[in-house]
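Sequence in, structure out. Go.
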Amino acid sequence: DDQHKIMYKLSQAQVELRSATESIDASAVGKFMRTVLWGVAELDNAIRAERVKDGMYASFKEGYWPFACPSGYVRYKNPDNHKPELRIHPEYGPMITWAAEQRVSGRDYAWIAAQLKKRGFKTTYGKYPSKQSVHRILQNPAYYGLMRAFGEDVMGKHEALIPYETFLQMRVIDGDFGHLQNRRNKQHPDFPLVHTVKCTGCG
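Output:
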């Protein structure tokens, strides 16, 4: 584990680990105390990580966005319930909607990326868009309201930037509509019985 790797490297460098407040030295008792303290620290970190993940999952199940903010949105913490919300970026949000409309009209990703760059659009990472990044952005179901994480799909409470019908049209143009059908959200209001009722004719 990490402890043994670190101690091995210190020993290779002829460095001895000592503590001013604990009985940690090269003796048998010192090694035992080091192992105990290291284990307690790892347990504390693991518990904190679990609590963070549990909190993120709870927010996700309620339809709130607990992850990194996607391009076109800004993060907002609701003062009433302290939940992480997404709000449309006043400048970049409409550009995402415009990009989707252009894709549906037949424009390719290289052209859309060039036009977005001229308009000053930048991705979440502060970079100008490329055709690849525009493609990834417009494939993200979060833009029509669907949050996908923890192996689950949940409709978010945030306002969509791309209408669902437009998202489907883009997937048809991109040639991956069949793949989208296989992952269609069972919680989408237009398909409430997906994964619940099976058609006797087509399966």
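Check: The radius of gyration is 25 Å. The longest strand covers residues 73-77.
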